[in-house]
Specification:
heterodimer; A: alpha/beta; two-stranded antiparallel ribbon; 6 helices; globular; B: Rossmann fold; Rossmann fold; 2 domains; 5-stranded parallel sheet; 9 helices; 27% strand
Chain lengths: 259, 334
């Protein structure tokens, strides 16, 4: 069984702070991590590898430093890692990104493609389904459980108020949510071998896709402007014993006709 | 692609088990505003099996026209069937804008459809407007984990597609006198087109109130400390006639079900009153509640980020303040 896992290196947006003086993002010193949903996708692939044996290729589109997350994936147990990196990919929106990744995946053998549902920096949840469309394979999103039954998968996909169980034949693309599993730690032996392995570097010339579909030129959506949100003005701050604080608040609620 | 050929605003009317999802009605509300600015028709796209009654609902909530695709193969959502049918309709009728509710299913459908149509999609828009000089949709959304707001445009491709979370826009008041055309459309779809099969559907949270409907919310975070301590917040919510909600930290600790989660990966709420108890105010949480009319924050730390977002910050121990607050409110109500 061949499994491809798409992962993304993202800034840990949970750790991002806003500079109170300038009201802008402090981007320096923000740690980079494997996107959490992607880590769960990788873990699921590793669980399948543990149970039935599988060859896992992790792939990422990013700048050269994204190699770091691919090494981390190798340390968790992936067999092969590919970084697709090229200035031609710069400025890509989700459609152009999905085209680049699909272009790379076309060069690989795959039965299952795992991806995280969404990245914590873009939060779009679009790249996975778009890759599936380019490769003309079925998709199941919001996956919280995977069972292999021959060449068919039985997958549980989350809904807001419950779930659905879906059967689908391979090849298929699945997007994972954190609820799927608890990712394993890297293991010492794997960390050592991870550094013996080569992370393959592919450029736009190595992938199977029309170059016009890549990068900024291949992106139908364009950012017109972006800004840090205006901090809502500081309201009232009451620093008093509980009783007085509660009195003040209750009084306020009455004023506002909430009670 | 000739941009000028594309006219009209479409809203995907999501139905599950014959029930229209509220987010689709909310999008009709916003869609009407956009259609009026552009001077075009607002059309709802309804797929399902025997869902004609829903078409009338859609007219009552603002659709000028409803296109109904009726087939037993469309009874339950599947990516393949819904994408195929809607893509056909788009190719035939060329809308300039398509709005899709960012439900779990909407977020499955929209990117697949956008890739098939080779067009731009902007997810989780919190604002939609029209640039009248270009007739382009201006789509505003949080980015970088909610730390910044970006305005996105799709100038050279059609249709322009956006997904919007439930609770962001408001539906129009129902108008039973509203007039609209309901058209049942022809389309090509075979069983062999559908590569996934739903073998079981389970609703696990039957009677949990949808917190995005609540007008008053008392929300708890890491500072609440234990599952049992949520009872304190529940009491406060009850005395105010509101609902309990939670931050991601409380949900991840297993203190409340994820249906109660407010924030970037939870629900968006805009109640009249939001009381944040023991919540630090991470950007991802604020993204889900900062448009509440009045925000009260109770936190031991007077410098917690939530205090900067609140209209009223009470610095102190929630275990002391909340009981006092409950007593005060009861006294006023008596």
């Amino acid at each position: 069984m061949n499994i491809v896992v798409c992962i993304k290196q993202v800034p840990d947006t949970n750790e991002v702070k806003i500079d109170p003086k300038t009201n802008t993002l402090i981007r320096e010193g923000v740690p980079s991590i494997i996107n959490p949903d992607d880590k769960s996708a990788l873990e699921e692939a590793l669980v399948l590898k543990d149970s039935i044996g599988a060859h896992i290729t992790v792939i990422s589109m990013g700048p050269p430093q994204a190699e770091k997350v691919l090494r981390e994936a190798l340390s968790m147990g992936a067999d092969e890692a590919i970084l697709i990196t090229d200035r031609a990919f710069a400025g890509a929106d989700t459609l152009a990104t999905s085209n680049a990744l699909a272009g790379a995946i076309r060069k690989l053998d795959y039965d299952i493609i795992f991806a995280g549902r969404q990245a914590i920096d873009g939060d779009t949840a679009q790249v996975g389904p778009e890759i599936a469309e380019h490769l003309d394979i079925p998709q199941v999103t919001y996956v919280e459980k995977v069972e292999l039954m021959g060449n068919e998968l039985k997958v549980r996909r989350a809904l807001e108020d419950g779930y659905e169980v879906i059967t689908v034949k391979t090849p298929v693309l699945l997007t994972a949510i954190k609820e799927l599993n608890v990712p394993r730690y890297m293991n010492i032996k794997n960390i050592y071998t991870a550094f013996q392995k080569e992370v393959k570097i592919w450029t736009a010339n190595d992938i199977d896709v029309d170059k016009a579909l890549l990068g900024l030129a291949g992106s139908p959506t364009k950012v017109r402007k972006s800004a840090t949100k205006e901090a809502k003005g500081l309201g009232e701050l009451i620093n008093k014993p509980a009783k007085e604080a509660a009195e003040y608040a209750a009084h306020k609620l009455k004023e506002l006709h909430i009670i | 692609m000739n941009i000028a050929d594309y006219k009209g605003v479409w809203v995907f009317a999501e139905q599950r088990d014959g029930i229209l999802q509220k987010v689709s009605l909310e999008l009709l509300g916003k869609g009407k505003e956009i259609a009026e600015k552009l001077g075009v028709e607002l059309t709802a796209i309804l797929l399902g099996s025997n869902v004609d009654k829903l078409a009338e609902e859609l007219v009552a909530f603002g659709a000028d026209k409803v296109l109904v695709a009726n087939s037993h193969l469309l009874k339950h959502f599947t990516t393949d069937a819904y994408t195929k049918v809607i893509a056909q309709l788009v190719k035939e009728r060329k809308p300039e804008v398509i709005l899709v509710g960012a439900s779990y299913l909407g977020r499955d459908l929209a990117p697949r459809l956008a890739a098939r149509l080779v067009t731009g999609l902007t997810a989780d828009c919190t604002g939609l407007d029209v640039d009248m000089t270009t007739r382009n949709l201006l789509q505003t959304r949080p980015a970088f984990g909610g730390n910044i707001m970006a305005t996105i445009e799709c100038p050279d491709h059609r249709p322009q597609m956006s997904t919007v979370r439930p609770g962001v826009f408001e539906k129009l008041a129902r108008d039973n006198q509203a007039k609209g055309t309901i058209e049942e459309v022809k389309f090509e779809l075979e069983e062999s087109d559908i590569r996934t099969k739903v073998v079981e559907a389970v609703k696990s949270l039957k009677d949990i109130m949808d917190i995005s409907e609540a007008k008053i919310i008392v929300s708890g975070g890491r500072g609440v400390g234990t599952k049992e301590n949520f009872a304190l917040l529940k009491e406060l919510a009850e005395v105010l006639g509101g609902s309990v909600a939670a931050s991601r930290a409380a949900v991840e600790n297993g203190w409340v079900d994820k249906a109660f989660q407010v924030g970037q990966t939870g629900k968006t709420v805009r109640p009249n009153l939001y009381i944040a108890c023991g919540i630090s105010g991470a950007i991802q949480h604020l993204a889900g509640m900062q448009d509440s009319d009045y925000i009260i924050a109770i936190n031991k730390d007077a410098t917690a980020p939530i205090m900067g977002a609140a209209d009223l910050g009470l610095a102190g121990d929630l275990n002391r303040i909340i009981p006092e607050l409950i007593a005060q409110i009861k006294a006023i109500k008596a």
